[in-house]
Amino acid sequence: MKTRFSLIRVLCTRMAFLFALTISVKSNLQAQTTVPFTLSNNSTYADGNVYVAIVGIVNGNFVWIDPKTSAVNLMSVSNNTVPGPVINGNTGPGGNGLYANCFAKLSDIPNKTFNIPGIAGCRILISFNSQLYLYFFGASGSPSGYAAPNLANPTDPNQGIRFETIELTNASNGLWVNTTRVDSYQYPMGLEVWGNSGFYQKVGELIPHSQILSQWQSTAPSEFAGCYDATNGIIKFPSKTAAFQTGGAQANYFGSYIDAIWSKYQSGNLVFNAGDAGTWTGHVSGNVFTFTRASDGQVGTISNKPTNLEVMEGSGVMAAGGQWDKVIQAQICAAINRHAIDLNAATGTTQDFSNAASYYQTSPYNWYCKFWHRSDISYNSLTYAFCYDDVFNHSSTINASSPVRTTITVGGFSGLTATGAAIVYKDCNYGGYAIGLNPGTYTRSQLIALGILDDDISSLKVTSGYKVTLYQDDNFTGSTLALTADDNCLVDNSWNDVTTSLKVESASASSTVIQAESYNYMSGIDVETTTDAGGGQDVGWIDAGDWMSYSVTIPATGTYNVAYRVASPNSNTSLRLEKDAGATQLGSVTIPNTGGWQNWTNVSHNVSLPAGTYNIGIATATGGFNLNYLTITSVSSARVAVTTKAVDDNTVTLSPNPVSEQLYLRNNDKVRTLSIYDISGHDIMKVKNPGSTISVSSLIPGIYIIAIDRKDGTQKRIKILKQ
What we know:
- By secondary structure, this protein is mainly beta.
- About 10% of the residues lie in helices and about 40% in strands.
- The radius of gyration is 27 Å and the shape is globular.
């Protein structure tokens, strides 16, 4: 488990309130990059009936971001200019029934895309048929922050307004973003994040809203049936309903289990493995549960026996104290909700709380959470169903260390078919899953992350007006095969075995090529004769801190692919694209070791550019490369790639490969044991009954062999590259 306590967690159970937030944030929000977020509307609501707001904290101040311009604004009482409903005399915190003018209709957001800078505790609020009525207290001081919707308050002006939330922090350690079911479910949502080095991850609901409600009503046990709000067509977290509140029929739902745990470990020790956080041994004295870590003697405590609400919400004694107290509280709180503490195991026996196969099997457990982790409802069974669902990485949190772009799919992934300039299918009958590719370049690692090369490029359909070029080498060189707007079956063609990179482009794409030596201004660089095709000059002697600026004319606001022709004998070099004299960071790319100062290759990324004529800059914190030219091509007209209709078979697969932090195991329920060996055959790690995610962050970079022993007796071995 990653011992991360970001504002996403701090605020995840604090959605239902109508008073000032007074959180003081002193954190480094120097984000690695400003991240473009695109909203794809797969809902039954028209764009004009979908409303969007963005609120968060920047450098200790509460801010809101204008979705139409991406401008960051300090929260102010003067923003409260929108009249809201007055229910039973509730005129809001301002006493005048006025609320923040911070929402925009999706139809008014250019390209349905906005940029998120470095920010903490950020929420993207998406509502339907009406904006939400937030009240801004101010950017700092006391009171400060904003008043959010409160489902428990019958006079709240937001009663009856359907809304959903995306939570995120964008900081120096990357983008952390998730969907959430912690307070309620109101409408299906999907979330996809792309990053450098082929990173891609997806979470969200897979079936339509009506089907989710039907599944809940037909399967919910009587204790949880009241979570369904038929009037509003939503499902509330149990603690938000009267039944689980004090005096309700389920007010002591976990009581017997909690009592038994606190009683058993009065006379013996509870020992459990917390993954990355180590092995802990604890016992109860009075009502205080004290744990000690075996490796270094660190101590974590739960100061009192928790109540039913404290267990469900991760609040009170389950969210108090220092760092190690909170690690323990998260582990035990998650274990109780999942019923992972085995009271039949002898005291002193080490228990494994990471075994997902044992979750939600023995009563009492949080059935609400079990429902959202169903594989037919949530992609890869990942969701944020309660605030400590990230214990052993079962939450819908996506962490991209070098994010490139993000798509929020309003309405979830139900009914989507793959779209794009090129569509790759599993077989030549155009069956199974399909993956759409937008205009752009795709390296082998990116294709693997999208799930293509793991199953080979077996058939590829090219949309009219586009062209796909397949390359034999991973740097868009070597023998090529060009495909146009015909159906092309490649299963009998050797290309599906040797293709390592491909390019998707408009058959008549208009691109702007800028020679590197044609800069307006520069600092620290020089030019030289190049041996690259076409001759001319390149820019060299680029050191850390050097830069060049170029005048560009962008015809329309949108997403553009910027490709750079680079050469370098060095590793770990990069450049960044910026504007406004460096005040606006557009994105960065890593430059590979090409083998020499005149051995050329292409690297590229997609960036959001405003319309107009202005200067853009190329800067670097590393130096150590040459630049020949850059090419800017519009890709705004194509939809983002969407993987759909995963094949429901028994295939066990691992992705991504190469991998940095975490492997994703498909059909993990078919696996008895997963073992990891180094290239010399040494046993590095063995996991019995693995979950859908395997942390490999502790492995040193290199090649490893994954041995998968299936429950049907078959075996599979996969070679992976740990970056």
